[in-house]
Design goal:
Strand order of the largest sheet of chain A: 1-5-4-3-2-6-7-8
Number of strands of chain A: 9
Order of helices and strands of chain A: EEEEEHEEEEH
Shape of chain A: globular
Oligomer: homodimer
Strand content of chain A: over 45%
Distance between the termini of chain A: 41 Å
Largest interface: A-B, 20 and 20 residues
Chain lengths: 157, 157
């Protein structure tokens, strides 16, 4: 059983010049029930089906299972997904010993930028980049599965 | 896109002596939203993840996508499934040019026996076995995904 330990933050500032990689991601959810999500993702010419379990009480750890699948099959499966598809560019930024994944959303979630850092344990220390804003780990509104049903463009209405 | 065309019937009578194969199946649903189900199944030492789309208006055709996955991973994924797991024995019965899959449920769905025949088109003719009962094609109560949340043992209360 693979556990994912990560902390999630909003981004306030310019991070793009520090990025070592940028990839376009399109993803959707076959389901996003409490306790389990099934995600279809295309990313840089490859595609994946991912199952995630529920987060722990503080939102850090989630069971995650992933399989690569053919891109044309992923495109068929994306048509079955609920809600809106999520479109974003993922930038990779190195800071000290850690890699930050910074997702800049487009489409209906334009304006939202979220950074995630993966950790080996829930209390592991890491160097904070200057552009790292408020922590939103465990806040369900920033789950991509929530955004597919409740896009960021509607939050400010 | 693979389409599954099948008709489904209740079973009234003895079919086991005619079976050419019998396999134990355990399955669960990561989700069973209208329009899409994601199923995890173990069957005779192998395991599969299957996505099914919604049925056509008469319940005959459903989009279906399936990948074989390792059995140990399927067992982890079954723990994430909603509702009760479905346990059944699948018998294969040849009748004329067709194969009938006859599912005899156990556990919370004991007493229920359903036969399915796969067809090349929605109007293809087939020879009816003597034990074939009422047609229930398209009746959502006989979907395994419905049974996992509403087991047959509770129907008669």
């Amino acid at each position: 059983m693979a556990l994912e330990i990560e902390r999630k933050f909003l981004v306030n500032g310019e991070f793009r010049d520090e990025a070592v990689d940028a990839t376009r991601i399109v993803q959707g959810y076959l389901c996003s029930a409490p306790g389990r999500t099934v995600r279809i993702r295309t990313r840089g010419g490859r595609a994946y089906l991912t199952v995630k379990g529920s987060a722990g009480p503080e939102g850090f750890s989630r069971y995650e299972w992933e399989k690569e699948i053919p891109v044309d099959e992923a495109e068929e499966l994306l048509k079955l997904c609920e809600g809106a598809l999520i479109e974003k560019t993922r930038f990779i930024v190195k800071q000290g010993d850690h890699l930050f994944e910074v997702d800049e959303f487009s489409g209906e979630n334009a304006g939202l930028i979220i950074a995630e850092v993966e950790l080996k344990s829930e209390d592991e220390q890491f160097e904070r980049p200057a552009w790292l804003g408020e922590e939103v780990t465990g806040d369900h509104r920033y789950y991509n599965s929530f955004l597919s049903g409740n896009p960021y463009s509607g939050w400010r209405c």
